[in-house]
Amino acid sequence: MKRRSFIFSKSIPAAVVMMGGIARSGTKDLDPIGSFVPFISRERLPDPIIIDSLELYERDSEWFIRARSKDSAEGWSVGHPKKTELSQQVFTKVIAPYMRGKDARDLDRLVDGVFLNGSNYKMQGQLFWVQLAAAEFAILDLLGKVAKCSVADLLGGSLRKTIDLYIANNHRSRESQESLRRIINSVDSIGAKALKIKIGGRMKVADVVPERTEKLIPMVAESLGDRCTLYADANSSYISVKKAIQVGKILEANNFAFYEEPVPFDYLEETKKVAEALDIPVAWGEQESSQWRFNWMVKNSGVRIFQPDIFYYGGLIRSLRVARMAAAKGYDCTPHISGGGLGFIYMGIFAACCPNPGPFQEYKGLTKSFPWESSGDKITVSKGSMTAPNGHGIGVDIDPDYLAKAKIVK
Asked: Are strands 51-59 and 62-69 parallel, antiparallel or unpaired?
């Protein structure tokens, strides 16, 4: 692969088969909720696994979830480090009661069922989906430990042992020269072969520091373009389609490989117009929570790279559904990840089992805020790549002595 070139997935028919297939109606009448074959196969899980409890714990501003079966098997996950506190009761009063008494092997169906139950659909948004994602991760950990396999194997099979990374950064308040210095340091810290810079000022603000974007793009290309694939994230900075296209042309001239969220994320038609005017692939989806809107963007070729946030979108199963939709059109699905907690683990699981994840995955660091260890091959980052989680369950064990002092959240 040429470092400056973004390579889309080529073996789409094989990828679709590996992901479980698409309903016979194809993409024309695709129902993103009901048309896909479930990810979790019962071949490894012949007996019911009834969820007895799903509990939320807190220690040191970190959030831990325990799923326990009636047979006393356990799974653990870590919730979103910032968003969990804002919607604790969604977990304790909505998601946990719904999951109790259900067969964990039906998780594909349960992630839809809890959304459609009662009036829960009225809560759609980050503060609902981050709680469902945390519950799903814990239940997947439980299932993997019962099946004695990794979650990646449980969700279709591990396809890669290492994950190539792009390192993300955010220095919008800095002058271009200082931004470049910090970007180079972050690349050097892991020997990254790809990176993503922040351009614009975020959410309808063109730039915090005047002309920073126009100066920074060629500086990064000159300094790092020969050793790294370059990505850029505007975070919805440009209200004007014309301005977004102008910036896209600068990125093209400097051989950047994708352009993320050029206009406000919910401007679907405008995003499509920008994508159609440029050769550089436009990436989108970090803020999206609707399976239907993802489906619309895939069917209408609104962008070429799809980026569900594994937390914001409600977990691995929903995110892998987006990958299936994208695969059917020959596009890649390179998810956004939230920093902190075990975001790097959930990213690694996705990239390990998804046939069309794109060449590099987002990296924001290995957490050091609580004690954990790999349950399979040691998870390390070296020369721009991370070991894929391959231990039973999610691939890590959190120190039980540390968890013993966590307080349950009612």
From this structure: antiparallel
Alpha helices in 286-342 (DSSP H): 291-299, 316-328
Domains of the chain as residue ranges with CATH: 12-19+154-397 (3.20.20.120), 51-151+401-409 (3.30.390.10)
Q: Which two tokens stand for residue 191?
A: 């020997």
Q: What is the C-alpha to C-alpha distance for residues 216 and 245, in angstroms, rounded to an integer?
A: 17
H/E stretch holding 108:
helix 107-116
Task: Look at residue 78 in the predicted model and tell me its pLDDT.
Answer: 98
- Is the pLDDT score of 6 beyond 70? no
Q: What is the pLDDT of residues 367-395, one digit of tens each?
A: 999 999 999 999 999 999 999 999 999 99
Whole-number pLDDT of residue 31: 52
Look at residue 40 in the predicted model and tell me its pLDDT.
Answer: 95
Report CA-CA distances (Å) from 352 to 3, 203, 387. Answer: 21, 32, 10
Distance CA 410, CA 405 (A): 16
Residue 99 CA, chain-centre distance (Å), reads 23
Q: Is the pLDDT of residue 27 over 60?
A: no
Give per-residue pLDDT as tens, 28-52: 454 544 567 899 989 999 999 999 9
**100 secondary structure, DSSP code:** T
Task: Produce one character per residue of 177-202: b if its CB has 16 or more CB atoms within 10 Å, e if not.
Answer: eebbeebeebbeebebbbbbbbbbbb
CA-CA distance, 266 to 263, in Å (whole number)?
8
- Which residues, including other chains, have CB under 8 Å from residue 353's CB and lie 6 or more apart? 151, 152, 153, 155, 156, 157, 158, 159, 320
